[in-house]
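Late entry, written up from scratch paper. The run itself happened at the end of the previous shift, but nothing got recorded in the book at the time, so transcribing now.
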Amino acid sequence: MKLIGNIIWLLCGGLEAALGYFMAGTIMCITIIGIPFGLQAIKLGEFMLWPFGSKVELLPGQPGCLSTIMNILWLVVSIPICLVHLLFGAILCVTIIGIPFGVQHFKFAGIALTPFGRTVKSDI
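Output as recorded:
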């Protein structure tokens, strides 16, 4: 079922969204200051490719103060991204068929808001 969900996800816009995250991450990696933010955008793109069977977890141990500072800086660009994922999640949850895809968007909203100090685990 995960494979079918991931294929439908890719065909219905997941591939384009992942490519957008990959492009943004690559552009952010041009400068030395942007490398940590670019790597987080690339991590979001990887999560966007195969969302079914993946889950977001906090990194082992306490996240350090650097993760907190980076998440605060990341909030400048992440609030609109998070709101878009919440909007798509709410729209998709209106129909029974769209509920699994809406749940994935809610997962994306959480990691898009504060990606530092989190990791994506895949069961696939």
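The two ends are 11 Å apart (CA to CA).
(Scratch paper discarded after transcription.)
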